[in-house]
Design the sequence.
């Protein structure tokens, strides 16, 4: 058994040992996005909430070893064991996810030109020119970029983007790893969906698929809804 495997096993065993203690486990709670229809059966005993065909799923993070993340889904029986409400646990998990993998905007030209590029911190109040109002939109992910589409649901992210663009938003989830965010009024959602469908077919592996729907963020209501659902 390798040293790396021992480290992974020890950390997972430590997590399992402390599963009954919410205070010990809360800093390991994270949220990942999954396609709801395809995961519906698997999520039956899990803790999640969903809008449209996107499920926000609660996980326990077991650490990262050699750039490989290990985690497992939180089950409803664990909430009962903790004596916690799902909404409170989700709030803690989203905040953890924010600090563990902060949101970033990625510019294609910088990705191609600079292998060390780690995105632009649009959440910095001093950063006012890192997002584009143009039709091409903005690629939003996290510092890790793995499972980075969750950035769209992290605290304060969509309100911040909406304020910077001074617009409601259309969201196109090209995979579980990123979301394209567009200022509403600049693009047509029907055309955007056609582009999204084509992009998914050509570029997104089946295991990374999240949604082929377009989502709308209403800055006044502060709410995300799914367009074209059904």
Sequence:
């Amino acid at each position: 058994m390798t040293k790396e495997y021992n480290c992974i096993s020890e950390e997972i065993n430590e997590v399992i040992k402390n599963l009954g203690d919410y205070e010990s486990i809360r800093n390991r709670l994270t949220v990942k996005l999954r396609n709801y229809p395809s995961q519906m059966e698997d999520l039956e005993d899990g803790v999640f909430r969903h809008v449209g065909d996107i499920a926000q799923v609660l996980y326990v993070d077991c650490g990262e070893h050699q750039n490989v993340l290990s985690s497992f889904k939180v089950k409803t029986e664990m909430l009962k064991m903790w004596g916690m409400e799902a909404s409170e646990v989700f709030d803690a998990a989203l905040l953890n996810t924010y600090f563990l993998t902060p949101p970033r905007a990625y510019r294609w030209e910088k990705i191609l030109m600079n292998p060390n590029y780690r995105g632009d911190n649009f959440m910095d109040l001093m950063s006012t020119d890192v997002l584009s109002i143009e039709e091409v939109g903005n690629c939003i992910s996290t510092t890790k970029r793995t499972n980075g589409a969750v950035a769209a649901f992290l605290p304060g992210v969509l309100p911040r983007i909406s304020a910077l663009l001074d617009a409601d938003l259309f969201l196109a989830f090209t995979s579980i790893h990123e979301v394209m965010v567009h200022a509403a009024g600049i693009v047509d959602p029907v055309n955007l969906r056609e582009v999204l469908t084509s992009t998914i077919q050509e570029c997104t592996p089946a295991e990374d698929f999240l949604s082929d729907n377009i989502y709308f963020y209403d800055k006044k209501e502060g709410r995300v809804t799914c367009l074209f659902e059904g």
In short: The longest strand covers residues 54-65. The beta strands are 29-35, 48-51, 54-65, 68-73, 103-106, 138-142, 169-175, 178-183, 214-218, 223-226. Helices lie at 3-17, 22-25, 36-39, 76-82, 86-100, 108-113, 157-165, 189-203. Residues 103-226 form one domain.
